[in-house]
């Protein structure tokens, strides 16, 4: 199968799997990540096909959409096999998806340039104006409050989300969003992250300012 044809099939697969997930994790998230991964791949001279294909598939395995991460990964593995992807490429793509998630040990370094590119693209979509929108969408879907001044930002609340505790949308900035900038792998990704990070700080400043005005 031609590369372009494979990419189009992956796109359709992602669309059918993620469809209208309302938690800020929908198909358009994957669409943005794939677009950004392509751009980053060009900047970083990474393998564009691997980067784009991995980006399209990266959230199909998400544990929120599957019984567990294992079944999610198997779904992607089966798809790669069925579409005649080279065995080395299959392994490469699966390794990237597995290493990618922040919770699945985001501290585990990416081994390959393509992994670095796709991880940066995914993290960049959690930042800036779009990242803020996703945070409020996800938060609402989980039944969390926008903000609760009695929930202060404490170190032990870090990753409350991943321990399945209730947090707030604003607290998520401190649990995750503001920590992402320094984790960027590529120079170009770092550059984009700077601006998005700055905008989030400005947003928080305005948020607290308005809160006090009431
Ligand atoms: P991805 O796997 O695409 O990186 P996640 O599944 O971790 O993203 O989260 C989807 C979106 O929801 C992201 O923008 C993330 O920042 C946001 N999010 C994740 N957990 C929370 C939470 N507890 N509260 C608010 N937003 C969250
Ligand atoms: Ni993602």
UniProtKB/TrEMBL annotation:
Entry-linked SUPFAM superfamilies: HD-domain/PDEase-like
InterPro entries membership: HD/PDEase_dom, HD_domain
Domain HD, residue spans: 26-127
Protein name, per record: Phosphohydrolase
Annotated source species: Pullulanibacillus camelliae
């Amino acid at each position: 199968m031609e590369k372009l044809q494979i990419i189009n099939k992956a796109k359709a697969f992602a669309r059918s799997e993620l469809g209208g997930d309302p938690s800020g994790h929908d198909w358009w998230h994957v669409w943005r990540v794939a677009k950004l991964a392509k751009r980053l791949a060009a900047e970083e001279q990474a393998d564009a096909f691997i980067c784009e294909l991995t980006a399209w598939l990266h959230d199909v395995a998400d544990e929120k959409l599957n019984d567990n991460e294992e079944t999610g990964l198997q779904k992607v593995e089966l798809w790669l096999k069925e579409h005649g992807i080279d065995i080395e490429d299959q392994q490469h793509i699966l390794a990237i998806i597995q290493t990618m998630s922040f919770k699945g040990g985001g501290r585990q370094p990416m081994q390959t340039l393509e992994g670095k590119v796709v991880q940066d693209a995914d993290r960049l979509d959690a930042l800036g104006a779009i990242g803020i929108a996703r945070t409020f969408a996800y938060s609402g879907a989980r039944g969390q409050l926008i903000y609760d001044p009695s929930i202060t930002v404490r170190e032990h609340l870090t990753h409350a989300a991943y321990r399945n505790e209730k947090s707030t949308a604003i607290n998520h900035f401190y649990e995750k969003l503001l920590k992402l900038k320094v984790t960027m792998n590529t120079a170009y990704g770092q550059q984009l992250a700077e601006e998005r990070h700055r905008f989030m700080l400005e947003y928080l400043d305005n948020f607290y300012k308005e809160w006090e005005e009431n």
